Amino acid sequence: MINKFPQNMIDSLQYYVYIYIDPRNEEVFYVGKGKGNRCFAHLSDNKESEKVKRINEIKLDHKEPTIELLIHGVTEDIALKVEASVIDLLNVKKLTNQVKGHASSKIGRMSIDKLISIYNPEKANILEPALLIKIKNTFSYSHTANELYDATRQFGV
């Protein structure tokens, strides 16, 4: 199995977006952005995560995950946007990615209603005392009411 790119290829590849596929069922289970040999780093990762667990299960079946590049030869900014779009499309709940793609909550998949609320928001008329809790790093427009509640209550006083 190939576990690194030839050195003369690395500069030409620039940034890229890659996927990991489980050869046992052809399911995409991870999406990442990288440069150099980043796409191979997960094969020797020993951190505790769903991604590493899945890779180890594949290896126990005497197979290797399939790695494919979706796009290459792009800037980091483009790679980040493609990564976020692919994660949104495939649904992060079905992937082993721990978080959605970079800036996905701002520029990623969302309904027309959400877009209008961002670019043409209604002015809030708050008449009662209120507390603002900013959860920008964990917020997603796809959160259910319970997920939003759980995200805010972790910052309780």
User: Alpha-carbon distance between the termini?
Assistant: 52 Å
Identify the CATH architecture of the largest domain. Answer: 3-Layer(aba) Sandwich
User: Which radius of gyration do the C-alpha atoms yield?
Assistant: 19 Å
Structural class: alpha+beta
Average per-residue pLDDT, rounded, comes to 84
* Shape verdict: elongated
Note poorly predicted spans.
Answer: none
Structure description:
The model has no long low-confidence stretch (mean pLDDT 84). The protein has a three-stranded antiparallel β-sheet. The protein is elongated and about 65 Å long. It is an alpha+beta fold and 157 residues long. It has helices at 7-13, 38-41, 50-60, 76-90, 104-107, 112-119, 145-153; strands at residues 15-22, 27-35, 66-74. It has two domains: 7-107, GIY-YIG endonuclease, CATH 3.40.1440; 112-153, no CATH class. It starts with 6 loop residues before the first helix and ends with a helix.
